[in-house]
Amino acid sequence: MELLKQRILQDGKVKPGHILKVDSFLNHQMDIPLLDEIGAEFARRFAGVPVSKILTIEASGIGIAAIAARHFGNVPVIFAKKTKSKNLDGDILTAQVTSYTRGTTFDIQVESKFVNPGDHILILDDFLARGQALLGLIQLVQQAGATIAGCGIVIEKGFQDGGELVRRTGVRLESLAVIKEMSDDSLVFAD
């Protein structure tokens, strides 16, 4: 997605440790017209694939998923919570995830009543690096016996192993911008 790549080059900041900071338009302050274009692109890429719900993980994926949902006929959006909450009750789907940027391991949780065996779940998130969040979300859908419609990622760090790990599961993965190389002063996108 050329518009996204240009925005990353214009406003993204590379930090030590292969961290790409896109907080001015994607995951802290959100550029709503850009998110709308991202949602439209996911809908184009998954055209013809049944999607009854979108699943993401808090917090950065929520805005992306909510706007994308409009392009899928206003389907519901579910987000996996990263912390135990008194608001979670009943049967809970859980998976363990290790965060690349935080360097911590935690359980993600979704109430099972929101993901049903008849659902076709599209998983969306902002970044894919080591793949742990995405694999955890896939695990939640599988626990529920629902169908995975696919996974959509805004920015994939193609030089890390997450994309390969997810693709090996057989789940369809669509990434809008894949970074092939990243150093302190440059980014190279895959074709």
From TrEMBL:
In Pfam terms, one family for this protein is Pribosyltran
What this protein catalyses is: XMP + diphosphate = xanthine + 5-phospho-alpha-D-ribose 1-diphosphate
Q: What is the similarity comment for this entry?
A: Belongs to the purine/pyrimidine phosphoribosyltransferase family. Xpt subfamily.
Q: State where 5-phospho-alpha-D-ribose 1-diphosphate binds.
A: 129-133
Look up keyword Transferase and say if it applies: yes
Q: Which organism is it from?
A: Bittarella massiliensis (ex Durand et al. 2017)
Q: Write out the GO MF terms.
A: xanthine phosphoribosyltransferase activity
Q: What is this protein called?
A: Xanthine phosphoribosyltransferase
Alphabetized UniProt keyword annotations: Cytoplasm, Glycosyltransferase, Purine salvage, Transferase
Going by the entry's taxonomy, the superkingdom of the source organism is recorded as: Bacteria
Quaternary arrangement and interactors, per the entry? Homodimer.
Subcellular localization(s) per the UniProt record: Cytoplasm
A cellular-component GO term for this protein: cytoplasm
Q: Provide one Gene Ontology biological process annotation.
A: xanthine metabolic process
Record's function text: Converts the preformed base xanthine, a product of nucleic acid breakdown, to xanthosine 5'-monophosphate (XMP), so it can be reused for RNA or DNA synthesis.
Q: Where is the Phosphoribosyltransferase domain?
A: 53-158
Q: What is its EC number?
A: 2.4.2.22
- InterPro entries in the cross-refs: PRTase-like, PRTase_dom, Pur/Pyrimidine_PRTase, Xanthine_PRibTrfase
Q: Which residues hold xanthine? A: 20, 27, 157
What pathway is it annotated to?
A: Purine metabolism; XMP biosynthesis via salvage pathway; XMP from xanthine: step 1/1
